[in-house]
């Protein structure tokens, strides 16, 4: 096993009862696990007291859960752990053999979940137990899982390499991707894994989790949770049930106002309020609807250069009341923000004096791990939180915006220390959640429920405050595919409202040009940068996404592109208005499923559907298979029944794989025939 791991070797009910299981480790040390059933079908295993001296992070990952102790009963060979929907078994174990690396690891079973306890388990480089800290590595808890021969594994947050994690080694640690695509890392990670055979595992932690999902041993997974604390949940059920139970632990997504499901237009960036008005008028003249328009560069500083929210609005370019002419045209506005301030500025010094910034051990401000000049606000400090909340609420009131792009929040440094005593590693993933909690508080204070934040970072619990986008992906066909993989994986990790930059975020030429334009903030100087067919196909996919949002360093307006893709993109935006009622109704439904439903979730138990990892059910009735390569050809799996084309494609009959070929104005989106086109499309 991995050097230094102290494995579980024996277990028995503690004499004091109340659902406490006393565990003996290979070293002879004992720890107590409090066994509970906070939700039917969910077993909670919580350390009664951490073996190390690290603080227990207090945050908002979990809802307020009831204290429902499990019943522990001695049975032949071990302890039965029972409660509503829970029948688990923890083996008594044999410390005289396992502690020496001989024999099988101690067994734990709950429904389809089985710890990897084969006799060969003693030869693995990992076993379930505690791994004490050394000078070279932090402490961690390890759980193992036996992977059934044909089981798939999902979750973990964003995954640019596909929804099925089996065979991969994922480090669930939020990072700034720096515009990269296709890597096995992500802006947003969730310590939740689940399998189509009926088990799920979720760690209540803000720290990174290391998930070896059959990479080292084809039939064994390792779920390694950083830190001295342990708060682990085992979930049972089919795919929809597991996600429903996960939401019962961490919260359901907030309902969004209906206007959120219209068309969002953006580029990085518009540079003046007048430029935004001209853009809306240009689109209106082309009969292209716009409901929200977003601006990055509204501040008296540069987003690309400074990556902080330090300055106030630039009133030369965005005078007081600048959003009024857009509101008169029926268009809402969205602004860029982030949770950092720039080192060396008067605001940073003022915040430092008051202790409002995250600190290092020597008391100096702690920069983010990727930029020595960006300083995160400490949202665990109640006074700092209140100051930042009022700052943002005032922004809503003064600028008249209804939406935010809540950017960044990933790169918390290891040497950071927060006001509540937690450290950088403990907040690496959960800082984004703290940030989004305060954004929600400010928006609610200023606008009630009539606002929409879109965030990039986050972790478990962040799904409560939608929406989240897939980050800064390149404007290439591979970028489109990676983006699709990411949002589908987010949907399988509890996130209902996911979105993406239609057209992709960047090309090398437009990114260079964007940097040059920041020197002058010159309007009307951004060019169209996306290959036209790719732009048209991405626009069509965006129309069948939870939020239809165009964004990138080049022009993203359909009017900037040549025919036939100009007309195809405008038609996609108009189609979005026709399906807006269907999308809004599906988002408001009580079934708890995400709007974008990957096939293993939409059709649990259908093996062919499981293999269709690049398509999804949009709401309950629309099958979507985005076009992923030039030429308009696509193989897609058609579930049982008759399916009618919504965008020019002929009807299809399932079950089975079918190939479709689409002209530029056609797209593979189909509605169940028994529901009919009228169930999705409103009259033109």
Describe it for me?
The chain has 684 residues and is an alpha+beta fold. Among the domains are: 6-52 and 65-250, Sandwich (Immunoglobulin-like); 338-389 and 403-464, no CATH class; 596-679, Sandwich (Immunoglobulin-like). Helix content is 23%, strand content 26%. It is built from 15 helices and 34 strands. β16 and β17 form a beta hairpin. α7 crosses α9 and α12 (532-543) runs parallel beside α13 (565-588). The protein is globular. Mean pLDDT is 95; it is low at 51-56.
Key terms:
684 residues, Immunoglobulin-like, 15 helices, globular, 23% helix, single chain, 6-stranded parallel beta sheet, 34 strands, alpha+beta
What form results from the Cα inertia axes? globular
Helix coverage percent of residues?
Answer: 10-25%
Total of helices: 15
What's the CATH topology name of the domain at 6-52 and 65-250?
Immunoglobulin-like
CATH architecture of the domain at 6-52 and 65-250: Sandwich
- Briefly, what CATH class of the domain at 6-52 and 65-250? Mainly Beta
Largest sheet: 13 strands, antiparallel
Instruction: Tell me the radius of gyration.
Output: 26 Å
Strand order of the largest sheet: 12-14-15-18-4-3-2-1-10-11-17-16-13
N- and C-termini, Cα separation: 64 Å
